[in-house]
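Worked problem 6 (solution included).
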Amino acid sequence: MFALKLARLIERHADELSERLMQKLKTSGRCSELINKVPPDELKRRTREIYENLTKWLMTRTESEIEEGYIGLGARRARQGVPFSHFFWAICATKEQLWEFLQRQGMYEAPVDFWGGMELMHAVAQFFDSALYYATIGYESARKGEAPHVLTAN
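Solution. The predicted structure is:
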């Protein structure tokens, strides 16, 4: 239950999280090509959507929905000419931004908060691991000139 409250807190601060992430991406040499090759409004919209829809992603979305969305995103970034390492780093920075936000909020002061936070971070880690896996499939497919396809999730 506490994890759901934390996810909703993140959603309420989606604008702040997105702004901070955009600043981090703009100043990081690890994703400079992403910043140069992806239209700023698209990148801003995508970063905000992740934070704004976190509860949906964690609670109601199926693995196949994550698969479909991130295979498509990986293929799009490949077609845009974004080096995979820059794309990968941006996804990692998105997850890191969540962790930093929760630390700033002081969410881990009581043991119950700690365990609820751990529950959320575990779910977030699983989401981002799946997102990276499927984004990689989409990226690789696009680089090979193949149409990205949705796999049967196991």
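Discussion: The chain has one domain: 2-143.
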